[in-house]
Write a structure and sequence with these properties.
This protein has two domains: about 190 residues, Growth Hormone, Chain: A; about 220 residues, Growth Hormone, Chain: A (Up-down Bundle), CATH 1.20.1250. About 45% of the residues are buried. The chain has 17 helices and no strands. Helix 6 runs antiparallel to helix 9, helix 8 packs across helix 14 and helix 11 runs antiparallel to helix 14. The radius of gyration is 31 Å and the shape is globular. The N terminus and C terminus are likely disordered. The protein is mostly helical.
């Protein structure tokens, strides 16, 4: 034992680590390295705990937000009737369409000079009108004759747009003509969804919610989703021009699943008939049941004018402020202010319409037309960023409230058996009016006063015709105190 111990090599030679002298330089370096690793470990541990806490907090916030949204959409019996599911479906639909719009805008509008952009947008609007040509003789009657497949039709619309959005990812970067037929497919599917959605709302009404309020809640959800999707689509576009389309693909797939979760009564259409959006002379009693009545026709003309004003301002101001910014502001700032005012006006008008109690829809829609005409005259006389912003905000509010008045008149005057068809066809006409207004905004010269004067002239003409029609209505329709509540 003693020999072995005496002959054993030192600890460092036997393979055990040397222990440097605490007082030597190596010992100081070791302690410094050890303290550095300890600090790094503590920092990493804190970062890990902070990341975990952030993830948990974010999850809780998202969950709480989701619960609040679900409570809001399910209020007043909307959860039990199924209206809440339709509100969520429409929000998803609006979000997907907005992401596609962001992708198209980057190719058609922002990435090319103004002159070329006007030609591209004009072509896009011509393509936008094509769905209405198909909706009137083909898609509209087809949907009228296939009422038992409304859920399937809405899901098919989502799936078709998902497939087209995925195909567009390979053609959007080049910005060639291949984008336009794909955009046409998205538009046709979107308009078909809109027609079916307007028919479905009356089928899902809770007992405590009027049809006007239900339509306002659906529209407001779509506007909020559009704003959120616009921001998300802009961030995705920073990654690549095709990424908003990838996001739209996923959103549309989710929408297809939501469509099949709608209640089964959506597909029930007992005793429904098609509506005719005009009046009939009194000597044709057999057909008068299917006509919508003079008050609805009056509101269609007024709201169609207001919707056309919205489309006109959207495109005219987009090009005008890009070339000639108002009041010396940068073009991006001026355009952002005006477009923001239009969007805020839309949301404000929809929110007001959800609780407004007006006792004269005919009076209301005429008043809204007068307000819009006054704003347009002010913009023509005192042209500047302030009056343009006022005009854009007024256009947003008036078109939203005008839709409330139109819906209330359809609910009041149109027989129930043709009411769903009347809603579908009126919404188609309103969308067409927006497209026509946008087309006018493109062909006019980019002179601010010319555009404002044109809008003012058309609004004043529509106001005269509307007042003339209002005076020809039966006295009961014009009495503010005698008409039922709008909401």
């Amino acid at each position: 034992m003693g020999l072995v111990a005496d002959d054993a090599p030192p600890e460092s030679e036997a393979g055990s680590p040397e222990r440097p002298s605490p007082s030597g330089p190596a010992g100081g370096e070791g302690r410094a390295v050890g303290r550095g690793h300890s600090r790094l470990g503590r920092v990493a541990d804190r970062a890990h705990r902070a990341a975990g806490a952030t993830a948990v907090g974010t999850g809780r916030a998202v969950g709480a937000t989701g619960r609040r949204i679900r409570r809001a959409t399910s209020a007043e019996g909307a959860g039990e009737s199924g209206l809440a599911k339709l509100i969520e479906l429409h929000a998803v639909n609006s979000a997907g369409d907005m992401m596609v719009t962001v992708a198209l805008a980057s190719t058609i509008f922002f990435s090319v000079p103004t002159g070329e952009a006007r030609g591209r947008v004009a072509l896009y609007l011509l393509i936008t009108m094509a769905p209405f040509v198909l909706l009137a003789p083909v898609i509209g009657p087809l949907l009228d004759r296939l009422p038992s497949g409304r859920r399937s039709a809405m899901a098919l619309s989502m799936l078709a747009r998902a497939a087209i959005a995925w195909m567009m990812t390979s053609s959007i970067a080049g910005g060639g003509l291949a984008v336009y037929p794909e955009a046409l497919g998205v538009l046709v599917a979107s308009k078909a969804y809109g027609v079916v959605r307007s028919v479905v709302v009356p089928r899902l009404l809770p007992a405590r919610v009027t049809l006007v309020k239900a339509n306002a809640r659906v529209t407001l959800a779509g506007l909020l989703a559009t704003g959120l999707a616009g921001a998300v689509g802009g961030l995705l576009h920073l990654v690549g021009p095709d990424w908003p389309l990838r996001g739209a693909f996923l959103v549309y797939l989710g929408g297809a699943l939501l469509a099949f979760q709608l209640p089964h009564q959506v597909d029930l259409a007992k005793d429904e008939e098609r509506a005719l959006l005009h009046t009939r002379p009194p000597d044709e009693p057999r057909l008068r049941l299917r006509a919508v009545g003079p008050s609805v026709v009056l509101a269609l003309g007024a709201e169609g004018t207001l919707r056309g004003l919205s489309g006109f301002l959207t495109f005219f101001l987009a090009f005008l402020l890009r070339v000639h910014p108002a009041s010396g502001l940068p073009s991006t700032a001026a355009l952002g202010i005006v477009v923001g005012a239009l969007g805020v006006g839309n949301a404000l008008g929809t929110a007001l319409g959800s609780w407004l109690r007006s006792r004269g829809p005919e009076i209301l829609v005429t008043f809204l037309l007068a307000v819009a005409a006054a704003a347009a005259v002010a913009a023509a006389v005192f042209y500047g960023i302030l009056t343009l912003t006022l005009l854009a905000g007024t256009a947003g509010v008036t078109q939203s409230l005008g839709k409330v008045a139109l819906d209330s008149l359809i609910q009041r005057d149109v027989p129930e058996r043709v009411r769903t068809s009347a809603f579908a066809r009126s919404e188609t006409l309103m969308q067409l009016a927006w497209v026509l207004g946008g087309g006018l905004g493109i062909v006019l010269p980019l002179i601010g006063r010319v555009g404002a004067s044109t809008a003012a002239g058309l609004l004043l003409l529509a106001l005269v015709l509307t007042v003339h029609g209002l005076l020809r209505l039966p006295p009961a329709s014009r009495r503010v105190a005698g008409a039922p509540d709008v909401a």
